[in-house]
Design a protein that fits this description.
By secondary structure, the chain is α+β, with helices and mostly antiparallel strands. It has nine helices and 22 strands. The radius of gyration is 59 Å and the shape is rod-shaped.
């Protein structure tokens, strides 16, 4: 499109040629030109860059477990917030596994409390038994000491007391075994009595039969001793020979009582269930059998001593035997208590280990159940949707792509010469061709630490705010950075021509166009700063110079004043290539 100035130049050139033709001169006609006077001034520069917007955060959302998709709650383009549900998977398997583990865990916890209560009760019973043994031992030792101190009396007195104690011990032993073995009138017929193993829950029926046989032997021996006792000890003072006979019968009965009680103790040790006795009853009966056995053992030793030694020796032996037996009984009970405590700790540790394992498995199952709900990792927009209801998904398969569009990043290649004008945090105006009339706020996010070896460009990342929500990933954006003002000899940008691969201008000398090769520094679309080739004050041809040759005559049509400094908001540089 021709400008008025261009039309004027053409008219002047035509008139000049016509006049020259009429005169018949061979000199080339003068070309009308417009000149500008080069002047020292400042030039404000802008750096215009471009690139493609990308979301500051973008991720694929995948399932972490295998499953069938029950529902999909979002579509492509939908906006979501952090933890919004995107899709749900079938929970049948995970729910069943978690329910089963939870039930097993509850049972294990209840079982642990029952186990603790059972062992606590057994420990209390054993501790009470130890206390009773100590009290009985103290009493027995005191009695023995008194007997020893008064042993100057007759042998009959000590023997009579020992035989009386033996009668009581045998009666207690028979009573205890009689209750346990059901040989009283509880079951009338032999067939019901044979249900003994079922009654006390013994695992080994042969042990029960052995106990019953020993009980029969003990019953006969006790009956013989009881007949003697009633005939001689209850009716008056027995003679020496009668005492000796009584000691023999007592030794026989006590000797029969010892294995019978031991076999009964074996049966009780192997008892695990009971229809007629509780665990506490069985524990109490076991302690009763142990006590009876200890008493029988002590009395048997005393009877044997009375049969073999004199009066003083007999009293001392009884006291020593009583003390020894008491200490042994207490030590045995204390060992049993320690074993019981260690057993409690071991059993509790085993159950607690199982509970810990179940808790871990239930925790994993709960996590897997929670993973059947696919959630948004952050707020943004759904870029892609790759799943539909009914699909079976595997761990790691992308189901959705979510992009955070609250802000974008823009990567640009900046010449290293302009890097001094940029710094992290510097603001910039961003324009997008597809959103005309709006300017978006940008800020330098990061600057690469090194330049590209071939292009000498440095990658700069810009953050662009998207408060209005108009920006989308992939949009092409332009960025304008005001640079520092450069000083120099300023000429119009259109005055510079490119010839022979170099920049050149025409200046006027004596009415002729003289070619000058120049070195250009800072430049904008309107003006350029010349570093060499032109000095201030020279007239530089800005129009009508495209077809001039060095030395051609020219006529100045218009002479413009020196070029003023161009403000940064009016100067626009040629855009640099977008970042790859």
């Amino acid at each position: 499109m021709s400008t008025p100035l261009s039309k004027t130049l053409l008219s002047v050139t035509a008139v000049t040629l016509l006049l020259a033709g009429c005169g018949g001169s061979d000199a080339p006609p003068a070309t009308g030109v417009v000149v500008h006077t080069a002047a020292e001034a400042g030039i404000a520069q802008d750096l215009q860059l471009s690139g493609t917007l990308r979301a500051q955060r973008q991720t694929d959302v995948a399932s972490r477990i295998n499953g069938r998709v029950l529902s999909v709650l979002v579509n492509r383009g939908d906006r979501v917030k952090t933890n919004d549900v995107l899709a749900r998977l079938d929970t049948a398997v995970e729910s069943a596994v978690l329910g089963g583990l939870s039930g097993t865990l509850r049972q294990a916890e209840v079982g642990l409390q029952s186990l603790i209560a059972m062992y606590d009760e057994r420990i209390r019973t054993t501790e009470a038994n130890i206390t009773s043994l100590r009290a009985t031992a103290a009493k027995g030792v005191n009695v023995a000491k008194m007997q020893e101190e008064t042993s100057g009396g007759a042998r009959q007195r000590g023997a009579k007391e020992t035989l009386t104690n033996a009668a009581m011990a045998l009666e207690n032993s028979l009573s205890t075994m009689d209750r346990l073995l059901l040989v009283t009138g509880k079951y009338a017929d032999i067939g019901r009595k044979n249900m003994l193993a079922q009654h006390i829950g013994a695992r080994d029926p042969s042990a029960v039969n052995a106990a019953r046989q020993s009980f029969s032997t003990l019953t006969a021996a006790e009956q013989a001793f009881r007949t003697y006792f009633d005939a001689h000890l209850l009716t008056g003072e027995p003679s020496a020979s009668q005492i000796t006979a009584g000691l023999d019968l007592a030794a026989t009965a006590l000797s029969a009582a010892k294995p019978a009680l031991e076999q009964m103790h074996t049966v009780l040790q192997f008892s695990v269930t009971s229809q007629d006795f509780t665990d506490a009853d069985l524990a109490a009966q076991e302690q009763a059998v142990i006590r009876n056995g200890s008493t029988v053992e002590s009395l048997l030793g005393a009877v044997r001593t009375l049969r073999e030694k004199g009066t003083v020796e007999q009293s001392t032996a009884v006291r020593e035997q009583t003390e020894t037996q008491a200490l042994q009984d207490i030590a045995q009970a204390e060992r049993a208590l320690e074993v019981l405590r260690r057993e409690k700790e071991t059993k509790i540790a085993e159950v607690q280990s199982s509970i810990t394992r179940l808790q871990a498995e239930a925790g994993i199952s709960a996590v897997q159940l929670n993973q059947t709900i696919i959630r948004a990792p952050f707020s943004g927009v759904v870029i892609t949707k790759n799943v539909d209801p009914g699909a079976v998904v595997n761990p790691g398969t992308p189901l959705f792509t979510i992009a955070d569009d609250s802000g974008f990043e823009l990567s640009m290649n900046v010449p290293d010469s302009a890097l001094n004008s940029l710094a992290t945090g510097r603001s910039a105006a961003v324009n997008v061709d597809t959103v005309p009339g709006k300017t978006f706020d940008g800020e330098v996010l990061r600057i690469a630490p090194s330049a590209d070896a071939s292009s000498k460009n440095i990658e700069v990342d810009l953050r662009v705010e998207n408060k209005s929500g108009d920006l989308k990933p992939g949009m092409f954006a332009r960025v304008q950075f005001p640079l520092a003002t450069a000083s120099g000899v300023i000429i119009p940008a259109q005055a510079v021509l490119s010839r022979y691969g170099r920049d050149m201008v025409f200046v006027i000398e004596d009415g002729h166009a003289v070619r000058r090769f120049v070195e250009i520094g800072a430049r904008t679309n309107a003006a350029m700063a010349v570093l060499s080739g032109v000095t201030a004050g020279e007239s530089v041809i800005a129009e009508g110079h495209h077809y001039l040759r060095d030395g051609d005559p020219v006529t100045v049509i218009t002479e413009e004043p020196s070029v003023p400094s161009v403000p940064s908001d009016a100067a626009t540089s040629a855009p640099l290539p977008a970042a790859s």
